[in-house]
Structure formats: C-alpha cells, structure tokens
Design brief:
By secondary structure, this protein is an alpha/beta fold. Helix content is about 25%, strand content about 25%. It is built from 9 helices and 20 strands. It has an 8-stranded mixed beta sheet with strand order 1-2-16-3-4-5-6-7. Strands 8-9-10-11-14-15 form a 6-stranded mixed beta sheet, with helices on one face. Strands 18-17-19-20 form a 4-stranded mixed beta sheet, with helices on one face. A hairpin with a 2-residue loop joins strand 1 and strand 2 (about 25-30). Helix 1 packs parallel to helix 3 (about 110-120) and helix 5 (about 205-215) packs parallel to helix 6 (about 250-255). The longest helix is centred in the N-terminal third of the chain and has 20 residues, at about 55-75. The radius of gyration is 23 Å and the shape is globular. The relative contact order is 0.12.
Amino acid sequence: MIFPEKRINYSLPDIKTNYCKEAPEMIYLSRVRNYLPAQGKGIRLGVYQGECPVGTKEAVQANLTRLETVAEDAAGHGVQLLSFPELYITGYALNPPLVKELAESVDGLSMQRVAATAKANKLGIICPYPEKAGKSGETVYYDSIAMFGPDGELLLNYRKVHLFGQAERDNYISGYDENNADELYKVVKVFGFPVGILNCYEAEFPELSRILALRGAKLIVIPTAADYFYTLANGKMAEVPYPDATTCMIPAHAYGNHVFIAYSNRCGWEEVDGKSWEYRGNSVICGPHGKHLVAALPEETMLIADIVPEDFGRTHPEGDYLEDRLPQTYRILTENITVRKIMLNIYAAKWCPHCRKSISYLKEHNIEFNYVEIEEQPEEVINKIVEVNGGDDWVVPTFELDGKWRPGKVFNAEELRRDLEEMGIKFQ
C-alpha cells in the first residue's frame, strides 16, 4: 500500500498508485490508505476483470467458484464493495437458446450462492447475470445486475434499460416499464455510502449519470462487456470497433457530475458457435476530477481504490453544475423525439410472390425498409425467424422493427397495414 503524505484539496490527493503482482494469475492495482474510509464518508471499491468461460452450465459453476475465490481475496484487501463484468455468471456472448437455458430468477440458486458469498465475506457484491422473470403472464429475460449487501440481503436488482444492438434485443427485453419508471436508476447505500448502477452501453448516456448524481450517488459502478470488432446479428462483421468509453466519456461524466465512476469490464476472449469476441480489458476507476485513479491493462486484474469524496476539492473557483441547472430549459430532453432512425427489416426470398407483393406495397406507401435475403443469412438468424414463426420452419415475409416481430403471412394489404401500424410504422 502507498499512503498519502498530504492531501491537497484543489487537486488529486497525494496518493500514489501501487502497481504490484501478488500472485501469478492476478494483477493488483490499488490506490488506498492504510485504513478504511469512515462509515458514510467513503467506501473501498474492488473491480474484478478476468477472462471467464461462457455459455454452458459448467461455465456458470466455474464462474461462481471464481467469484467466491475473488471475493475472499478482495475481503483480505479490505474491499467493501466488489464488482464483476456484465453478464458475469454466464458470460456475455449468448444467443436466445442459451439465454433461455441458463437464465435464472433473482432468487435462483446462482444468486443465492452470490448472496451467501457476500455475507460470508462481509462485503457488498455487484453481480451481473441473465434474469428470467414473469411479465403479463409470459416468461421474459433481462440483462440484469444484482447488488447484495454485506449481510447477503438484496439491495437492488437493476434490469438494463438501454439495450445495445440487435443481438441484445434478440436476447432480452428492456427493463423499462411505464409502470415502474420512477423505480429506475435507484441509489442505494452500502456501508452507508450512496451507490448507483448502470449497465455497459448506458455508460455512454450522459443523462443517466446525471440522474444518479441528482439522486445522491457519489459512486456509479458500470459493469460492461466492451469489446473490439465483433460479428453483428445479421452475420456481418462490424465496420467499426466498439468505442473505448474510458478515454473521454467516463472521465467527462465523472467530472460533470463530481462523482466517482467505475467501469467494470472483462478481458480475453469468448467463443460461441464458432464466433469469437475479444474484450478490451479496460476496467477503470475514475475520480470526480475526471482522472483515472487506477486503470487495468487487458489481463486478469483486481482494481482497488478508496472512494472518498472529501479527498477531492472543487473543480471551479465558483459555480456548481448540479446546483446551477435550469431544468425548465431542458424540456426537449423529455420529449419523444426520434433521433435514431429505426429501419423496418423484411426477411424475404426473391422467389416468394407474397414477399414481392409486400415489398411493392411498402414502396407504394413510401415506407423505408431494409431487405434481408433469408437464404443468405447465418444459422442464428434463420433460427430466430423459425422461432418467430412458431418453431417449425421459417416463413416469409417476416417483418421486424426495433425488436417487434410480425411472422410470415399470405399477403393481405389491409392486414399488413394494421400489423405494421401496431409495430409503430406510420403511413402517410
């Protein structure tokens, strides 16, 4: 440990980063004092970054066993709150059949084991997992994060609201529900310290960090599965890599809200169905002055930092971003304005007469669409179309709009218009 000689209130406290390797399999990067933060004044945070198995029941058990080992080790370093990467329990690179096979309820066996680990080690645990739940009489799936307190009690079960990309929309539904809008973006206290949670892609929405800061969060923890290039749901390779949010967005959001933000990523590779994902391994704990306190390389790492707001002085001689807000001028932020252009996808075949009639109908009504030749698609896309059409075989034309599906039917203009309007298409 490196201890401070003097704390300077107008800049970073004089605490050096300790780069040391305590075991061959784990790198430890710490920025801590020789005593724990005072109750309610701060918290010692641990962020685990590792390469983990994916997509099998054996992988789940291996990841739970690793979680128990890491938690015990973290407790030995005085960690009071420990975070793991997005969908840690199963691995991130899942498809719909694997989600249905491996997802569990928040009170299922895996989360019971995590809760017991938190209680045994007297620390809080942030554990992401695929959640199986009931909604309106149906079984649905969420990209969820459970936070357990040091007594093993569930403090928060956050369901990802802003899903990223088509693959996530195929696997999960959004955690947003008009009946629970006020329940989103909660702040809970761990060892008396206010903590908020976001999930991966949500790190990049400035509104969300601001909401948590306004609700009193002093630390925002964001489990993620940020990678480089990857195969899209349509089978094509992404044209650009996933961005590194730790270079500008996370520091900016930490600075703009005067909060600590931890980005809790995985490293290494995952392979499912012959496809592979390489993760950035860019976990970081960022201070309220927008500077990295500790940052990982792409290797198995434990980041440990004392999160103490009083160690950091003002960022301006006067003025405060939160206090000086004028919400009455921000009305456009809450209006339902479509910025992202959502395209209607039609999965069809050139030889299909009902497909040709449907396409002609769309063109006649100036409805923009993306044509997808079904027989040229990879197996997972075919399987999704089969599932949408009842599970026996694919049927065309099948329509999709922002995660809403219309199975293949014989062409009927009136029926097609009605179905598309229910999906959200506006006819002129």
